[in-house]
């Protein structure tokens, strides 16, 4: 018989379909009603309420040591994050306090990878400026090169920094656009990945699907920055990736190069990106993530002088109905977050949680 006093607090509405599964598992669920994130002191009060054993969180909640300690003292057993990135969670403290942390890898890989590619396309082909021209009534005549031209993505050398799940998926999609690829990852060099991507390029060329033979190489970071026509970031935010793209890195890039960030805002130094665009060290950037979200009105990235070269999005790369809300744990982030929560709180129904690839610290269960 499920323990009816066992409670879960969701810091955000992640959709009725997935949340219904929490209730169906006999847990009492409270969902934070506002679309804005709960304040930290509200969260602190919630984790101390009687019977609170599970938290469903998103990337906007700071799950810090104070919160985890208060939760652990009150019996909190799991933080199930509806996001793949976990930079907002103090994982070391959670593990020390024996709180399981789960997240939602894999289900957002394809959506994020294609968004990064479309962001690059939008930037390179100046789609926002083209639409603005039509809407503003300033499109006075067709002309071969006025008022502006774009850059083609095909034929580019694309640098991919971070070749985990999303970086690999992005690489696979770039091949379809006939690009050369330079790959770099601060932690691992994956020879099998290079071989597979190169084989795909070779196959396209052999069958006449690609007019030129394209190459895939693993390189060091300076080489990637210096040789790429576009650089896309696919790294988690960690101490060693914080401001990886700083002033010095931007100085290394070609003046016609483009930068795409769908990873985490603080992987780039935003002040340096604004300067690089202003001084035309690089030709453009498309950013979906920011060190502070929502982007503060006084951000240097909102300088109108660089607006024509900078596309800004609202942390939207995984933003499709299917990827964000589907209740199937193999399809949607909401489903996967709830599956992580229930695997820990209802193992008798949902199987051995140690088997789930989306439990980050399974050692806590031993
Ligand atoms: C999105 O940024 C995520 O981490 O899921």
Write a brief structural summary:
The protein has 366 residues and is of the alpha/beta class.
Number of strands: 12
Question: How many alpha or pi helices?
Answer: 14
> What are the segments in which pLDDT stays under 50 over at least 5 consecutive residues?
none
CATH homologous superfamily identity of the largest domain: NAD(P)-binding Rossmann-like Domain
Structural class: alpha/beta
- The run of helices and strands is EHEHEHEHEHHEHEHEHEHEHEEHHH
Ions, cofactors and other ligands present here are: glyoxylic acid
How many domains comprise the coordinates?
A: 2
- Main pleated-sheet profile: 7 strands, parallel
Q: Please report the distance between the alpha carbons of the first and last residues.
A: 24 Å
Mean pLDDT: 96
Shape: globular
Provide an overview of this structure:
This protein is of the alpha/beta class and 366 residues long. The protein has two domains: 7-107 and 321-365, Rossmann fold, CATH 3.40.50.720; 109-312, NAD(P)-binding Rossmann-like Domain (Rossmann fold). Helices cover 35% and strands 13% of the residues. It has helices spanning 16-24, 40-46, 65-73, 91-96, 109-124, 127-136, 165-175, 191-206, 221-227, 247-252, 270-278, 321-325, 333-345, 347-350, and strands spanning 7-10, 28-31, 52-57, 78-81, 100-102, 157-161, 180-184, 216-218, 230-233, 258-261, 284-287, 310-312. The strands form two sheets. The chain has a seven-stranded parallel beta sheet with strand order 8-7-6-9-10-11-12, with helices on both faces. Helix 8 (191-206) links the parallel strand 7 and strand 8 (216-218). Helix 1 (16-24) runs parallel beside helix 13 (333-345). The radius of gyration is 22 Å and the shape is globular. The protein starts with 6 loop residues before the first strand and ends in a 16-residue tail after the last helix. The model has no long low-confidence stretch (mean pLDDT 96). The site of glyoxylic acid has 6 residues, from loops. Glyoxylic acid is lined by residues 59, 83-85, 108, 318.
């Amino acid at each position: 018989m499920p323990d009816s006093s066992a409670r879960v607090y969701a810091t955000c509405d992640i959709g009725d379909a997935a949340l219904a599964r929490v209730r169906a598992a006999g847990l009492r669920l409270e969902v934070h009603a506002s679309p804005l994130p709960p304040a930290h002191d509200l969260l602190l009060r919630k984790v101390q309420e009687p019977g609170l054993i599970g938290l469903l969180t998103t990337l906007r909640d700071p799950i810090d040591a104070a919160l985890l300690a208060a939760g652990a003292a009150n019996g909190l057993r799991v933080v199930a994050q509806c996001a793949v990135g976990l930079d907002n969670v103090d994982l070391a403290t959670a593990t020390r306090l024996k709180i399981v942390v789960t997240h939602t890898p894999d289900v957002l890989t394809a959506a994020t990878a294609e968004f990064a590619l479309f962001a690059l396309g939008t930037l390179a082909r100046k789609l926002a400026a083209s639409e603005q021209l039509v809407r503003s009534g300033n499109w006075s005549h067709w002309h071969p090169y006025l008022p502006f031209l774009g850059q083609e993505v095909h034929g580019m050398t694309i640098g991919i920094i971070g070749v985990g799940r999303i970086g690999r998926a992005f690489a696979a999609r770039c091949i379809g656009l006939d690009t050369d690829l330079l790959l770099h990852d601060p932690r691992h060099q994956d020879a099998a990945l290079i071989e597979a991507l190169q084989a795909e390029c070779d196959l396209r060329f052999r069958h006449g699907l690609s007019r030129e033979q394209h190459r895939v190489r693993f390189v060091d970071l300076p080489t990637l920055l210096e040789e790429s026509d576009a650089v896309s970031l696919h790294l988690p935010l960690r101490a060693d990736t914080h401001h990886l793209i700083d002033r010095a890195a931007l100085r290394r890039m070609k003046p016609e190069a483009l930068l795409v960030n769908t990873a985490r805002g603080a992987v780039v130094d935003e002040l340096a990106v604004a300067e690089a665009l202003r001084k035309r060290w690089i030709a453009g950037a498309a950013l979906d993530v920011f060190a502070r979200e929502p982007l503060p009105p006084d951000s240097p990235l909102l300088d109108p002088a660089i607006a024509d070269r900078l596309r800004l999005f609202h942390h939207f790369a995984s933003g499709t109905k299917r990827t964000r809300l589907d209740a199937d744990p193999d399809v949607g982030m909401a489903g996967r977050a709830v599956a992580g929560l229930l695997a820990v709180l209802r193992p008798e129904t949902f199987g051995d949680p140690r088997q789930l690839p989306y439990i980050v610290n399974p050692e806590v269960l031993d």
